[in-house]
Each structure stands twice: as C-alpha cells, then as structure tokens.
Amino acid sequence: MSANKILKIGKHQPKLPLIQGGMGVEISGANLAGNVAKCGAVGTIASVGLCHASPHFHPEKHNYFEANVIVIKEAIAKAREIAGPDGIIAVNCMVALTDYDTQVRAAAEGGADIIISGAGLPLRLPDYTKDFPDTALVPIVSSAKAASLITRHWEKKYGRVPDGFVVEEPATAGGHLGAMTIEQVYDPALSLERAVPDVVKYVKEEMKADIPVIAAGGIWDRNDIERAFSLGASGVQMGTRFACTEEGDASPRFKQAYLDAKEEDVVLIHSPAGLPGRAIKNPFVAKYLDGQVESKPCFANCLTHCKYRKTRETFCIAAALVDAFNGNWDTGLFFCGSNVVKANKIEKVADIIAELFPD
Ligand SMILES: Cc1cc2nc3c(=O)[nH]c(=O)nc-3n(C[C@H](O)[C@H](O)[C@H](O)COP(=O)(O)O)c2cc1C
C-alpha cells in the first residue's frame, strides 16, 4: 500500500484524501455528510431539492426556492454539529438548477468550506461567492478541455482559478453523467485512466498551479484509491458506497434497492436535464425505457432546461428522486454508480473509512 496523499483544497485540509460525493435528492443530507466529516474525510451535502420534506416548504405557496435557502443553511449547521469543529463540510450544487445561484449563495452564507459544482460548466460560480473568500470552489469536469474552459473564464472575469477539480468518469459514476450522449458515456477519452493524467498535466503545465485533482467514478476499495493515486490524483470522491450506509440519509428501502441490484439492473437513461444518467431498472425506469412512463406533475420548476416541462417528454425528475429517497420502488428514480452491484451489506461510515485508510 502506498502512502496517502495530502489533499488540500483552498484553505481546507481533511485528514484523509477522500470526499464523499454529493448525492441528491437528500441521499447525502446532513447526517451522511456530518458523519463522513467526523471521520476525517470531506462530507458533502447535495443541495438539490433538500427542502422537499421540510416544514418550510408549502407547495400551495410555491415557495420551493425560498425554502431551499433555509434548509441548505440548516443542513450545513446540522452536519457541522455532527462532525465537530475540525470537520470539513462541502455542498454540491448543480449548475443545471433554476435556483443554482441562490443555492450557491445559501451554501456560502451557511458556512460551507467547499462548494463542488457540476452538471454543467460552473462559469459564474466565483461571482456568486465573491464575499466568501474562504469558501473553496471545485468544479466537476470530465476532461482537461472543460477544466481549461472554466479556468480561462474565471481568470479573465474574476481573477481567480479553481481550488481543485473533481474528474468524474461517466462510464462508472452515479447520477447525471458528464457526457453529451449515451454513446459518449463509454468514450475511452473520458476514462479516469485518460482524463485524470490529462487534467493533472493541464494543472501543472498550463495553469502552473498547485491544486488537487480528485478522481471520481467507480472507486470502491483501496485498490481503486491506489489506482487513482498512480494516475496523479491527490484524492478520490466516492458516492455509491456511501449511499448504502447506516448514516446515509435515504430510506431503508432505497438502500435495499442497492443491495438487490444486479449487473443487468443497472441502466443508462436520458434525464429531463438533457444529460445521460445511471440508475437501477425498477418498474418506473423499465416503463420509461419502454416509452410508457407516467410522470407525476412538475412541482418546483427546478431545472433551467427541463424536457418534461417543455414538451412533456421524459418525466418530473424532482418527483421521481423524492420518491426514490422515500423508498417508493415503483415510482422512484434510483440513481446509482455501476459499483452498486458490489453493495452487499449496509455498512457504517467509520468502518468503510477504516478499511480504506487503515492507519
Ligand atoms: C444516488 C446518487 C445521486 C447523485 N447525485 C449527485 C448530485 O446531486 N450532484 C452531483 O454532482 N453528483 C451526484 N452524484 C454523483 C456522486 O457525487 C459521485 O461523484 C459519483 O457517484 C462517484 O461515482 P461512484 O458512485 O462510483 O463512487 C450522485 C450519485 C448517486 C449514486
């Protein structure tokens, strides 16, 4: 086993070179993020739709966006309380959201140490956080080209560069994938083997910066971490394995779906956001793939570009993700990474971290 790398993101240095990836809707809420941070890794709250079950959200008042602001701040405070004073808490905000700017501001005002942002290019992220210089900003990319586009834009417009990059591999990751089409998901140029060294080279040779590159997608055990280190990554981000933990915020039925999933159950779909996504083929997804899905009504207008809202193609993703969180097997969208087939027990966060980082 090689020595651990040091992961320093802006002013923040977790004890371990590990980030638990943000997983919406509320698969990684305050409890998961707080417990991961308590163990010395970065715990990440996914900001998307966090208010869905909160007493602040009154659908009849159409106050989804206002309620999200309150709940994001509450979640950061709760995660911090669990994590203790040294815990590092990140918030994951998706560019594709209608209230992206408001969610980012809420995360910064709520005291997030790091904002991690993908599902689109976070070109205006520094603008939304300009009053919070200690909040580190980390775009999620799938290639050096995307890293360079973001960096050049930030330097020119805001005079700053990213504090790190998460390089996420579409062939294995969960949730929305950084590829334009389903075919592109398996493009070898977007594999960790190609994209991580490419981004590392870009950071060193063109940016001439000392910022970390963090590998995500398909990381499950220590061998995967060693592989990421050997590609030049300074840390890893893991999603699927942490979704299926005791501390994971989703319902027990969500976790059971992970335990039951077999290779043939893991499929790619076109999401209403216009991106491919990886999910478990439950009755809802099977019907969708068959062209027969019945959507629940749009309840929040949550995506800037939503195929369902525009043309009634696809489905209301917010409703489907909330159903998955609640464990509604027939109607939910159960996002997962390809490693979901390895989930065979509900683990404790501390046990996973002790296995991955034994000393
Ligand atoms: C259930 C689920 C929900 C996710 N939701 C988000 C999200 O809201 N925003 C985001 O940037 N990534 C999201 N992801 C991606 C993860 O943060 C992580 O980067 C990815 O899953 C890493 O691959 P792994 O699952 O193989 O470890 C999600 C993943 C899963 C499994």
Question: How would you describe this structure to a colleague?
Answer:
The chain is an alpha/beta fold and 359 residues long. The protein has 2 domains: 18-250 and 342-356, TIM Barrel (Alpha-Beta Barrel); 253-339, no CATH class. Helices cover 35% and strands 14% of the residues. It contains 13 helices and 11 strands. The strands form 2 sheets. It has an 8-stranded parallel β-sheet with strand order 1-9-8-6-5-4-3-2. Strands 7-11-10 form a 3-stranded antiparallel β-sheet, with no helix packed on it. Helix 5 (144-158) links the parallel strand 5 (136-141) and strand 6 (165-168). The longest helix has 20 residues, at 64-83. It is globular and about 50 Å long. The mean pLDDT is 96. The structure holds flavin mononucleotide. Flavin mononucleotide binds at residues 21-24, 27, 46, 48, 92, 94, 118-119, 140, 168, 172-175, 216-219, 237-240, 243, 335-337, 339.
In short:
By secondary structure, the protein is α/β, with parallel strands linked by helices. It has helices spanning 30-38, 64-83, 100-109, 125-128, 144-158, 192-207, 222-230, 240-243, 252-260, 283-289, 307-311, 317-326, 349-356, and strands at 18-20, 42-46, 88-94, 114-118, 136-141, 165-168, 175-176, 213-216, 235-238, 266-270, 276-280. Helix 1 runs parallel beside helix 2 (64-83), helix 2 (64-83) packs parallel to helix 3 and helix 5 (144-158) runs parallel beside helix 6 (192-207).
Task: Provide keyphrases for this structure.
359 residues, alpha/beta, TIM Barrel, 2 domains, eight-stranded parallel sheet, 13 helices, 35% helix, globular, binds flavin mononucleotide
